[in-house]
Amino acid sequence: MKSQNAISPTRSEDFPEWFQQIVRAADLAENSEVRGCMVIKPWGYALWERMRWVLDGMFKATGHRNAYFPLFIPLSHLAREAAHVEGFAKECAVVTHHRLEMRDGKLVPVGELTEPLVVRPTSETIIGAAYARWVKSWRDLPVLLNQWANVVRWEMRPRLFLRTAEFLWQEGHTAHETRAEAEEETLRMLRVYERFAREYLALPVCVGEKSAGERFPGAERTYCIEAMVQDRKAIQAGTSHFLGQNFSKASDIKFQSRDGGIEHAWTTSWGVSTRLIGTMLMAHGDDDGIILPPRVASAHVVILPITPKEESRAAVLAAATDLASRLRDQRFDGLPLEVELDTRDVGGGVKNWEWIKKGIPLRVEIGPRDLEQGTVAVSRRDQPHKTKSFLTVEEAVARLPEILGDIQANLLARAEAFQNEHTRKIDSQEEFKAFFTPKNPEKPEIHGGFALTHWDGSAAVEEQVKADLKVTIRCIPFEEAPEPGICPFSGNPSPQRVIWAKSY
RNA sequence: CGGGCCGUGGCUCAGCUUGGUAGAGCGCCUCGUUCGGGACGAGGAGGCCGCGGGUUCGAAUCCCGCCGGCCCGACCA
Questions:
Q1: pLDDT tens-digit profile, chain A (504 residues)
Q2: Which CATH class is domain A423-501?
Q3: Can you give the distance from the CA of residue A105 to the C1' of nucleotide B44 in angstroms?
Q4: Quick check: do A299-405 and A423-501 share a fold?
Q5: What was the ipTM of the complex prediction?
Q6: Closest protein residue to B69 (Cα–C1')
Q7: What residue spans define the domains of chain A?
Q8: Distances in Å between the alpha carbon of A71 and those of A64, A98, A117, A233, A454?
Q9: CA dihedral over A256, A257, A261, A262, signed as positive or negative
Q10: Residues 6 or more apart from A290 whose CB is under 8 A from it?
Q11: Which conformational region is residue A105 in: left (phi greater than 0), alpha (psi within -120 to 50 degrees), or beta?
Q12: For the domain with range A15-284, which CATH number is right: 3.40.1190.20, 3.30.1330.40, 3.30.930.10, 1.10.10.10?
């Protein structure tokens, strides 16, 4: 007997396994033969394409242009910034040879390189070297570039979309004349990410600064947007770094200033990755599969022709085709509606469930009875799967875009309510510990959330809490009026509450 | 990189203790009946049992080595 839900186990039974299953059920991606790498399939890649399109527009609108820098970084470049090397050394893939030869029936690498090449884990150093060549005068600044690329970080514990050895991302790299200008840029891009997460991915995020312990290697300040997913863990969904003059000194990005002196430029970098997809899936999915926010969905509507009788089949298919083309003339979010017409010869129930699992926002059934009545049956992915509303064809054509907008708003509201429900101000060690301790240690149930708790700013407290409870400071939120208090771990004064959580 | 568990059709697994050359369910293909919410019947395809070596007349099964995966720790967008 089939269970009532499409996905087994359910979220509450085993969240990590549920995640693996929804990715598979939606046909988004699969693991490849190389450990930690993934094949992103069309339904999954379409999400990345949409995100990329929207973000790219936002970057252009804030004055950036795209460029492309090499995959390979000379080892000597990476070595220039001490903290940076230390942060990334353990996870670097390194190319040492440039030729293969057949020996004893086996292909072996030969032709050792004089200098090993690091496959970029991020591009600060190689882009810094380019900026050093390009920047001579204050008139050459700012440099505002972005690149869409793949990067490699040799991770020990890969998870589809959340942490893979190779992943797709964008990295913005800018160089400025003044500290103030670079700081402003860092925060501007952080706000772009916040807006994108909220308005497109329907993800409410906490915006703030990382503690020193969580800072990007080589950065002076690291800012982040932090999301909560349905197991109440935090996930860093985007980062923006103020790099000070660390990298410009390491890469020698110098310019002659307005008063004739020689100064080092101030740089920033900022990025989001395919992790955004994983975050979105874990935030919105349910026990029937993924749920796609319409503004980034791989497609908006699927039309499911119902053809129970041979004699009405042709008429139903014709009506479905006509509906598809009329819908494709409609616009949602400024772009033509993406419509799938599923005429495959498989059982109606099976077909319907496939699209539920794939998270498409709207399913439209059209069958012989609809033909007689001039209606269609519309189901929303954000509502129980048996709920249908009957609209006339005219109404459907006119109203589907507005329903998509409603789904988008509903997903955000839902995610916001969830996050609020599991965010608590906590002022005592006991309550903090209870909040982050599962009732069943053998098989931990979903527990915890965001704790807004005071912190004295010391690394010692941060390390102790992490060692005791695996809970870390996710971000020091921007606040209008920080509320001073007492750090419950040390008893020392604290300037403001920070967000603590278990995290991905 | 340390500790534990596991590698058998596409997937989930049985068989291994007591060696005799491979099975189930799901999925897939064909035909028929179905189809407005995960259909049913009949037939069929598909496996060097992770890899290498050893013991043996004979190895999925026993022994040794290697590789890979999962979970737990350390690290991470």
A1: 345 788 888 888 888 888 888 988 899 988 887 878 888 999 999 999 999 999 999 999 999 999 999 999 998 888 888 888 888 888 888 888 888 887 766 677 888 899 889 999 999 999 999 999 999 999 999 999 999 999 998 877 788 898 888 899 999 999 999 999 999 999 999 999 999 999 999 999 999 999 998 999 899 999 999 999 999 999 999 999 999 999 999 999 999 999 999 999 999 999 999 999 999 999 999 999 999 999 999 999 999 999 888 888 899 999 999 999 999 999 999 999 999 999 998 888 899 999 999 999 999 999 999 999 999 999 999 999 989 999 999 999 999 999 999 999 999 999 999 999 999 999 999 999 999 988 877 777 888 999 999 999 999 999 999 888 889 999 999 988 899 999 999 999 999 999 999 998
A2: alpha beta
A3: 40
A4: no
A5: 0.84
A6: A35
A7: 15-284, 299-405, 423-501
A8: 21, 15, 9, 33, 42
A9: negative
A10: A22, A23, A25, A26, A28, A281, A284, A357, A358, A359
A11: left
A12: 3.30.930.10
- Is strand B less than 7 A from the beta carbon of A3? yes
**Residue A172 β-bridge partners:** A146, A270
Whether CB of A339 is under 7 Å from strand B: the answer is: no
Tokens for A98, please give them.
């440039």
Model confidence, pTM: 0.95
Domain A299-405: CATH superfamily is Anticodon-binding domain (3.40.50.800)
Residues 83-112 of A with CB under 7 A from strand B: 87, 90-91
